[in-house]
Amino acid sequence: MKKNLPAILVTLLAILMPLQALCSDPGQKAHHYYLDDIGQFMPTIGGVVLSAAGIQARHSVKERLAVTLTSMALCEAGVWTLKHTIHSTRPDGTDRHSFPSGHTARAFRGAEIVRTEFGWGWGAGAYAVAAGVGALRIHHHRHRFGDVAAGAAYGFLSARAAYWLLPLERKLFGWDKSTVTAMALPVCNLPGRTFGASVAIVF
């Protein structure tokens, strides 16, 4: 596992970055704050690092991968839908996609997975990072408190929903009977407004 850590981190970033871009508005002048942009992914990446370090997790690697991908799909789909339905103007006035905070949702989604897998000892740190991301979004006038609170709640619920769906995924992939490895790599082209995914499953 430790030998594969660089490849796993690169794969996670390749999945996470395009999904973040799908929630942005290419038609508006964006203000990027790199501490926020990196911080939103730190709880998720931290979970990978803990696993690679040999810290005992509650579920197997493939189950954690399934939970991560499922929660990401639920989180990004919900955040994108809400942003493009509610049309709340950001405090800095750059666009009308303020509600909810996608950065905060991603951070709290990852933090809840870390807490569930590795306990509150590590989860508290992950949640502190997630709370910091939310505070930065308010400080940088990208969101209001309500946007951040809604993002935190939605991220948390996305993670819990993914665990609720895990038994169904076990049955779907037959993980109780055989060894299955799955990997998904989203691809997006914002100027062309197209996106897709490459999925590999090894039985």
Q: Could you give a quick summary of the protein structure above?
A:
Helices cover 63% and strands 9% of the residues.
Q: Number of DSSP strands? A: 2
Number of helices: 7
Q: Radius of gyration, rounded?
A: 17 Å
Structural domain count: 1
Uncertain parts: 1-11, 17-29
List the strand order in the largest sheet.
1-2
Q: Tell me the β content.
A: 5-15%
Please describe the structure with a list of short key phrases separated by commas or semicolons.
single chain; 203 residues; mainly alpha; disordered N terminus; 7 helices; 9% strand; 2 strands
How would you describe this protein?
The chain is mostly helical. The chain has one domain. It is built from seven helices and two strands. It has a two-stranded antiparallel ribbon. The two termini are 19 Å apart. Mean pLDDT is 81; it is low at 1-11 and 17-29.
Topology (elements, then pairings):
Elements lengths: L4 H18 L11 H6 L2 H11 L8 H26 L15 H17 L1 H20 L5 H29 L7 E9 L4 E9 L1
Antiparallel strand pairs: 1-2
Helix pairs in contact: 1-3, 3-5, 4-5, 4-7, 5-6, 5-7, 6-7
